[in-house]
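Listing S7. Sequence submitted for prediction.
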Amino acid sequence: MAIRVLLVDDQPLLRTGFRMILEAEQDIAVVGEAGDGLQALDQVRALQPDVVLMDIRMPRMDGVEATRQITGPGRDGPAKVLVLTTFDLDEYVVEALRAGASGFLLKDAPANELVQAIRVVAAGEAMLAPSITRRLLDKYATHLPSGDEPVPDVLHTLTDREVEVLKLVARGLSNAEIAADLFVSETTVKTHVGHVLTKLGLRDRVQAAVYAYESGLVRPGAQ
């Protein structure tokens, strides 16, 4: 079945451009559009999309609050949210990730990256492109722990290998890349990621990456 996508952006021309790109793909169907967060909530309830391509800055209700309501407790459907951001990165992107977004994409990303991001998010994975992640973390480096603070007690529930995996997730590596780095199978990596999410009470890889930096486990610029 085709991936059902809802386009949410207050600029009609951008929505038209995204629609043209996505409707050229046999496995993707654009089921609707919305010009602000409130319209997005109505459309999600009515259309039950698989993926919502969500702008951040919009009138009436911004993308952060819309994301929170779409993915939060009592949500009406299984929709995943892929956040759109400008090249210089909106200051609200971190809040959108905390609110439940499954990843973020630059508005000027090539068409093939947009298509691939939607497929990744629809499959239940997180869209954490390393280049975007690094720029995001550089922007917020002054607000993140320095690494000198003690790590939260809950991190001590992780095994050494799970900590390694969490650090690599925070760097934006995919399961395949982590498997190659640690010389293990992708299935083993998926198992470790699952354990990390369960032990830390996190929803997905995006939250895991943000948590790793906010807890001080990983520092911006560290390898």
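Caption to Listing S7: primary sequence and predicted structure tokens for the chain studied. The CA atoms of residues 38 and 61 lie 6 Å apart. The first strand starts at residue 3 and ends at 8.
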